[in-house]
Amino acid sequence: MSETNQSTPEFxxxxxxxxxVAEFEDHRRGVLGKLQHLLHVNPSxxxxxxxxxxxxxxxxxxxxxxxxxxAMTLILQQVQIVGIxxxxxxxxxxxxxxxLSVGAIMVFSSVIMGQFTFRYGIPVPIAVMCxxxxxxxxxxxxxWLVSRVxxxxxxxxxxxxxxxxxxxxxxxxxxxxxxxxIEANAPxxxxxxTKFSIGGATFTVxxxxxxxxxxxxxxxxxxxxxxxxxxxxxxxPEAAELSGVNVHKTLMSVYMLSGLICAFAGWALIGRIGxxxxxxxxxANIESITAVVIGGISLFGGRGSILGSxxxxxxxxVFTLGLRLLGADAQWTFLLIGLLIIAAVAVDQWIRKVxx
Amino acid sequence: xxDTTPVVQGRGIVKRYGHVTxxxxxxxxxxxxxxxxxxxxxxxxxxxxxxAICGATIPDEGEIxxxxxxxxxxxxxxxxxxxxxxVYQQLAMSPALSIADNxxxxxxxxKQGFMGKYLRQLDRPAMEKFARKKxxxxxxxxxQSINQAVETLxxxxxxxxxxxxxxxxxxxFIIMDEPTAALGVKxxxxxLELIQDVRGRGIPIILISHNMPHVFEVADRIHVHRLGxxxxxxxxxxxxxxxxxxxMTGAKEPPKEDAA
Lengths: 356, 260
Known about the structure:
The structure holds two protein chains of two kinds.
Chain A: H1 2-22, H2 31-41, H3 45-62, H4 69-94, H5 102-120, H6 124-147, H7 153-172, H8 179-185, E1 195-198, E2 201-204, H9 205-223, H10 225-235, H11 237-242, H12 247-273, H13 284-294, H14 306-325, H15 330-352
Antiparallel strand pairs in A: 1-2
Helix pairs in contact in A: 3-14, 4-9, 4-12, 4-13, 4-14, 5-6, 5-7, 5-12, 6-7, 6-12, 9-10, 10-12, 13-14, 14-15
Chain B: E1 8-17, E2 20-30, E3 35-40, H1 46-54, E4 61-66, E5 69-71, H2 76-81, E6 84-87, H3 99-103, H4 113-117, H5 124-137, H6 155-169, E7 173-177, H7 185-200, E8 205-208, H8 212-218, E9 221-226, E10 229-234, H9 241-249
Parallel strand pairs in B: 3-8, 3-9, 6-7, 7-8
Antiparallel strand pairs in B: 1-2, 1-4, 4-5, 9-10
Keywords (chain A): Cell membrane, Membrane, Transmembrane, Transmembrane helix
Membrane topology (chain A): Multi-pass membrane protein
Transmembrane segments (chain A): 44-62, 100-118, 125-145, 151-171, 198-221, 252-271, 306-326, 333-351
């Protein structure tokens, strides 16, 4: 008898629960629930808050030394490469992939641009086009291996990273093309380093390119069918396929675009450092993943906005410059970035529980 | 097409995987305006036959006629382009995207003019309006916002959106694979009502289900699948659930093919 006594209220509870669930009402409320919902709808809000907070703190500690057009634009110049690469990384991570070869593609593309110009005497614009084409091609290879051969993106791009980097050293014979030579013979290679100032703030073409790129990608991801497909593929590729999304085409487009953007980053890299050096940009892959994660893009795919990655990159830039201006050991920057990464992923997990 | 032409007719369909014959010279028929339930034991091949009809698998032999015309689908997308919609058991939705996004996934509407043609901008207002209209038609518009993520909906609500999506785009018929399997009592009820509502709009439905009470409640005819082929088609008014189970499992001889 006791058995039935126990099970009856349970059954009733289940029945009434089913009833409330069947209505299309949002029953998750309260301050925490609202916050969770807000973050769920605007995933780049967290990094924005952190960015503004960090700027306020450093501004209070450093005053006008930090809040000057010079310092602000210096941060932008310092994060431009990571910002561009992080845009590429964001696209791949949105599809639930990861691209460890971004840095290698960037450096190799810049080497192609430089060597094609100086070794073969190819006109600079064509050499640049070749560099962009090679970047896109490597991206296409990544995409094909992931989408058609069905290998895990981590493994594919881990391998590609080594292959491209080795090719880069072999092809360039570890030779750096000096900044003066480029300036004298092929200034177009340094185009992204072109400076112009607006009211005391110095911008470079690379910085503008980064901002425009983020803007264009934000638009494409939010307002075109392609963008929706990128999210759907990252969310659940099988469901996307069943809904009529061409998953292969979407993945190919993402990896190729990622390669192309990395090649542009290679061009911007020449503008930033002046020379073409096969040993530069070694940390771009880790730095871009850091920016993406701090920017609130879920490593599990389908969630986050590319604007968040820009904020993520800027947060790293603000911390780096702010702590340096404070005279702190550079290790503090890494320590804080490490904390931010873990905190960002914890927040992501919390947001993902939204349906629970 | 006359009124008696079946919406779908499969004749002598065969599908083999190596030595395994998943479909063994099976026939299939869906009539206009009906709910046809497909039942069968696990492994009987009821999913296989339905997959063959919607292009998910390509049969080795036999022919499939849609409204009297022979078709050769190579993918479910071919079938979809003809106005055949499928509600999958696993729902085929992207949880992080909105209801409107999900309803139009893979067939988005672009804006007219420059923004749509060159910048490929989606026509969000049109898509949202259409989604809202379709949900309202099926009495599902207690939804807070058409832009809320699908993952914030309950299982029944998601199933409702999936059915609404199918009903919105289907012109020929809808296939539903175990639509109530994962749902509670109340939610199942709602979905069964939806199914009948969709039939009321003149769209025939193929319903694959294990749930005999649900099958007997909504089906006009029941296709019993056994050992890779259609064993018989019965009218739920003439037989009991235990009869149906007995046919399915081979415990009872099927009636002659005059039934239903």
